[in-house]
Amino acid sequence: MSPIDPTRRRLLLAAVAAAALPKIAxxxxxxxxxxxxxxxxxxxxxxxxxxxxxxxxxxxxxxxxLAMLPLDLEASDFGSNEKIAYLPRKLRALTRGPxxxxxxxxxxxFVPWGNLALFHGSYESTRDLVxxxxxxxxxxxxxxxxEFRLRIERID
Length: 156
Hints:
Elements: H1 6-25, E1 42-47, E2 50-56, H2 60-68, E3 71-78, E4 82-86, E5 106-110, E6 115-119, E7 129-136, E8 148-155
Antiparallel strand pairs: 1-2, 1-8, 2-7, 3-4, 3-8, 4-6, 5-6, 5-7
């Protein structure tokens, strides 16, 4: 068996490093420390004196959103089924819809406006929605009417 040419070896190592860096940079491959299994991408939302948690999807849009955290935003009612909040910049890594099995509890990104959509009621998905994740547990805090501060943090 012949040895690998040094130039070829450097290219191979560079390719492996380039493939791994984006995942490491946004925390996609965190482990639980015990079994070495991947852990879910989790976030915590503080709104109107309440706290909620959500589990993010494993897609480029959700990873880009996670990398933006923590965020302090203004949330408001939109329609009768969702709260919205505008991100400081639009997401570029888009995993466009329509969202399969769309339902209350989805945390989405609306591409044309660059806003988060926190659905507390049923909705019809479109090609312009990207599901970032789903809320864990009770959606009652999303039913509070009006405008309020929204803080979103990563759960480590």
